[in-house]
């Protein structure tokens, strides 16, 4: 039934309601299902028909950030064999700026070090994209490098959101970019 337009509309209203509740200055832990369903104009039973709990809705509402992160890191690519520029794509700093605006919500789902439901999803999707791109061009060690890239980005992003990594969005974009380029250029020792 995922193709049902009514289901899609209801889920969209619930996601928008949750984001609006969090934008009103409340952390996810301070938001209740009753406030979300009231704002969305749906019943509590409808909420539970679509989501197990509030964190499940929150991960769904934040799924766009996962796609935005993956796209921001790959915004420079015009083809799989394209050479990465020395400077990060502008989309990376834009992404970090957008994330900072909803930091309270993302901190609840992306734990220090990159754990949590949003961290797991970000790691999984970023790893898959990095691995596919490395494999497509025959780059060495696609599994190893893809895991390192996904772990590094997810962990740094999470730690930045939790105040463990200092800096603004532009500065962090530069630092992350240098780190990721170094990981991509790493060659494993000959065995």
- Overall outline: elongated
Residue windows where pLDDT falls under 50 for at least 5 positions? none
Q: Averaged pLDDT, please?
A: 88
Number of helices: 10
**Distance from first to last alpha carbon:** 52 Å
Class derived from helix and strand content: mainly alpha
Give the topology string: H per helix, E per strand.
HHHHHHHHHH
Largest sheet, described in full?
A: none
Task: Compile the SSE list and pairings.
Layout: H1 5-23, H2 33-40, H3 44-50, H4 54-61, H5 63-73, H6 90-101, H7 103-109, H8 116-136, H9 142-161, H10 169-185
Helix pairs in contact: 1-2, 1-4, 5-6, 5-8, 6-10, 8-9, 9-10
Structure, described:
Helices cover 68% and strands 0% of the residues. It is built from 10 helices and no strands. The longest helix is centred in the middle third of the chain and has 21 residues, at 116-136.
